[in-house]
Design a protein that fits this description.
Keywords: Signal
Oligomer: single chain
Distance between the termini: 72 Å
Order of helices and strands: HHHHHH
Helix content: 55-70%
Largest sheet: none
Number of strands: 0
Structural class: mainly alpha
């Protein structure tokens, strides 16, 4: 009599080759897609021009921030505006996002 299969395990007690491959593919996809989940508000290269310090704790004066905004690509401006419109994403960056929304022409 053959042993009963239980979920992911094959009769010999280990993972089947197909299921191992599927698990490895899922792991690889999550590693490769990880940076895609980080938004513009989390990218130091995008955010640094708006701050006076490397720790990004002190924002530059509004005029300097506006210049940094205008120097950004339209794609980065769009991503940043979209993230600032999302309540959950913008909450830790509330003061910054208020300025971004003004720069983007929103109130």
């Amino acid at each position: 009599m053959r042993p009963a299969q239980a979920g992911l395990f094959n009769p010999t007690g280990g993972l089947s080759v197909t299921k191992k491959i599927l698990c490895l593919c899922a792991l690889a996809a999550s590693i490769l897609a990880g940076p895609a989940f980080a938004g513009a508000l989390d990218e130091p290269a995008v955010m640094t021009p708006f701050f006076t310090d490397s720790g990004m704790k002190t924002m530059k004066p509004k005029d300097d921030m506006m210049k940094a905004w205008q120097a950004m690509s339209k794609d980065d401006q769009g991503r940043m505006t979209k993230e600032c419109q999302d309540a959950a994403m913008s909450k830790p960056h509330a003061e910054f996002c208020a300025d971004v929304m003004q720069f983007a022409g929103h109130k």
